TrEMBL record:
Protein name per UniProt: NYN domain-containing protein
Species this protein is from: Cardamine amara subsp. amara
Disordered: annotated segments: 240-264
InterPro entries: Marf1 (IPR024768), NYN (IPR021139)
Organism lineage string: Eukaryota, Viridiplantae, Streptophyta, Embryophyta, Tracheophyta
Highest taxon above the source species: Eukaryota
NYN domain segment(s): 16-117
Length: 264
């Protein structure tokens, strides 16, 4: 069951980082990619999250069109390509944690919460002070041991901006233009302007232009790099160390573990 609790005072004006796994939660057919960011922001603001919001989409983007990538980037979403979503999220979490001490909020949009749950559990329950929100395409069969303050179905979340009338949409557009200076200040305070628009984690390639990015991931050299990366990971016994749940770590998170949904 999805639920939406209002933001607690300590999280209302703090940073909210959104990580979106586009491979498990794709953009629905016919949906304008340019509406993803406004929809996420609307859903969060409806719950009282008024602080800076940063959105990063990650996954295998080889077959994602340049048009969609440009639409996402044009609304401020950072784009990261890579083959291993777990490794990408782990690195993003560590980097974000260093720059954003609690209280802060983090939101994961993915159907693979079970694969990310141990990493998020460490972040939320061991370090403390981090608020967690989730979104997924269908209600998970099992509820993880993660403690969340809000959960959405992906399509429901994407419809958040439709709740406003056309008049409200026009009003928002005017306010957006009027508050451009404030938004730029927020971006500078959170370091969002320093983040590259497009990143390929397989090759360490960074750029600001979508054509360069799509050209890069379509090149033979890029394919060869990813092939070598796959081979090296298959040979590396340490590859699964971030995704494997070890007993002692699991015990630290067990107090908040819940049962199968059907038994609640």
């Amino acid at each position: 069951m999805t639920f939406h609790s209002q933001a607690k005072p300590e999280y209302a004006k703090s940073e909210t980082m959104v990580w979106w796994d586009i491979n498990s939660c794709p953009i629905p057919d016919g949906y304008d990619a340019g509406r993803v960011s406004p929809s996420i922001e609307s859903a969060l603001k409806n719950l009282g999250y008024s602080g800076p919001i940063t959105i990063t989409v990650f996954g295998n983007l080889e077959y994602t069109s340049a048009y969609i990538l440009q639409r996402l980037s044009s609304t401020g979403i950072h784009v990261i390509h890579g083959l291993d979503a777990r490794s990408i999220l782990f690195d993003l979490l560590l980097g974000w944690q260093d720059d954003n001490p609690p209280p802060c909020s983090m939101m994961l949009i993915s159907d693979k919460v079970d694969e990310f749950s141990m990493t998020l559990c460490r972040q939320q329950q061991i370090f403390g002070g981090y608020n967690l929100l989730l979104a997924y395409t269908s209600i998970p069969k099992y509820v993880s041991f993660l403690v969340t303050s809000a959960e959405w179905l992906w399509k429901s979340l994407l419809g958040a901006d439709e709740m406003n009338s056309k008049q409200e949409t026009r009003r928002h557009s005017v306010l957006h233009k009027c508050s451009e200076t404030d938004e730029m200040d927020n971006k500078q305070q959170t370091g969002r302007d320093s983040l590259p628009r497009f990143v390929c984690t397989s090759c360490g390639f960074l750029c600001e232009i979508v054509e360069r990015f799509t050209n890069h991931i379509s090149r033979e050299e890029h394919a060869q790099s990813e092939t070598m990366l796959k081979i090296s990971k298959m040979r590396d016994p340490e590859f699964e160390k971030y995704s494997t749940v070890e007993s002692e770590d699991e015990e630290e998170c067990v107090p908040n573990k819940k049962q199968k949904k059907g038994s609640e």
